[in-house]
Amino acid sequence: METKYYNEEELNEAAQALKSGDLVAFPTETVYGLGANALLPDAVKQVFSVKGRPQDNPLIVHVSSFEQVKTYVDNFHPATAKIVENFWPGPLTLIFEIKKGSLPSIVTGGLSTAAFRMPDNKKTLTTIELAGVPLVGPSANTSGKPSPTTAAHVFHDLQGKITGIIDDGATRIGVESTVIDLSDPAADPMILRPGAVTKEQLEAVIGGNVTIDRHLVQSSETPKSPGMKYKHYAPDTQVMMVRPEDWQEAVHWAKEKALRVGVIAGPTIAEAVRFDVAAVYMYFNDSVEAATKGLFAGLRGLDEENLALDLILVETFPEDGLGNAYMNRLKKSANQKYFEK
Fold first, then answer.
1. pLDDT (tens digit per residue) in 184-235
2. Tens digit of pLDDT for each residue in 138-173?
3. Is residue 303 part of a domain?
4. What does the record give under GO molecular function (predicted)?
C-alpha cells in the first residue's frame, strides 16, 4: 500500500481511517506512535504484525480526555485526581485495574490492568476526538529498534505497511512517557518506566511516596508496561556506554583495535574526539535535555549501512531527574554494556 502523509486539513480523514481499522502513525511530545482503534482486536493485531512485536507486551491506550478513561475504569487510586490535574495532557502514562472485558485482551497483554495516556499534541488529540475511539499507540517503528522522533523515521521503518502518518515535525522530548502503576489503590504509586515526569515531580504533587520498579523483565515474563525488557531500543550496530572520565581511553582502545567508531555526545566530548573517529552525532548542547531529545535520532543516524560502523560510543549522564529516563533507554540500547578499562 502507499503510505500517505496527512496534513492538518486532513485529520478527519486520518481519524476515519483509524476508526475503521486502518493503521495511522501519530505525533506526540515524546515519540511517534503507531495508532489503531483500541476497540478492534483485528486492527490491534495488525500493529503487532507490522512492528514485529511480541503479543505479550501490553499497549498504551491513548485518550483525548480523562472522561474517556472512566469508560474502562471504576476504581481509581486516591492520587489519580492530583496526578491527572497536574500532568495531563503530558508525558505520563497511568496504569489502572480495568472493568473486566472492557478492553480486548490483545491490548492488555492478557492482564487485568491497562495503561492510559493523554498525549500533549494538538493534532493527535484532535484526531482521537474526531475518531471517537481510544487508540493504541506503541512507538511507530520496528520492534526493539530506536523509537521514531520524526515522521521520516516512521516512513523509513513502516512505509508501505501502514495507511498514513500525521506529520508534526520532530518530537519535543525524545523518549517515551513515564509509566506509573496506580492499579492498587492501597499501595504507593510505582514508576515502571522512567520518562520526563520524574519521581520528585510526582511526589511533590501527591504529597506522598512514589516507588521505582528497577527490575528488568526477562523474555519469559509478561511486562506490566511497555519498555521493561532487558534489551530494547537497540540499533543493529553495537552500542557501548562511556563514562565521562573514560572517553580518551575508549577512543584510544577503539583505534588500537582498528574499529570503525561513531560517537553520540554533546559538543564538549564530540569536538574533543571528532578527528579520531569515523562519525559523530552531536547533541545541540551538553545538557541531559538535549541528550534525551537526540538519543534515538543519533542511534538511527549512525546505524546507516553506508557508514559501516563497528561500534557506537555514547555519552552517559548521572541517573537522577531526566537522567533516569535517558540512561534507562541508553542501557537497553547498549545491552547494559559500558566501556571498561
1. 999 999 999 999 999 999 999 999 999 998 766 666 667 777 766 556 788 9
2. 999 998 899 999 999 999 999 999 999 999 999 999
3. yes
4. ATP binding; double-stranded RNA binding; L-threonylcarbamoyladenylate synthase; tRNA binding
Domain count of the chain?
A: 2
Q: How many other CB atoms sit within 10 Å of the CB of residue 329?
A: 25
CATH number of the domain that residue 264 is part of: 3.40.50.11030
Q: What is the rounded CA–CA span in Å between residue 252 and residue 254?
A: 5
Q: Which three cell numbers stand for residue 339?
A: 566501556
113-117 and 60-62 beta bridge pairing = parallel
Nearest Cα residue to 336 out of 239, 256, 249: 239
- Specify if 29 maps to a domain: yes
Residue pointed to by grid coordinates 538519543: 295
Grid cell digits, residue 34: 503507531
H or E element at residue 6:
strand 4-6
Q: Measuring CA to CA, which residue among 148, 216, 212, 205 is closest to residue 178?
A: 212
Give the strand pairing for 113-117 and 92-97: antiparallel
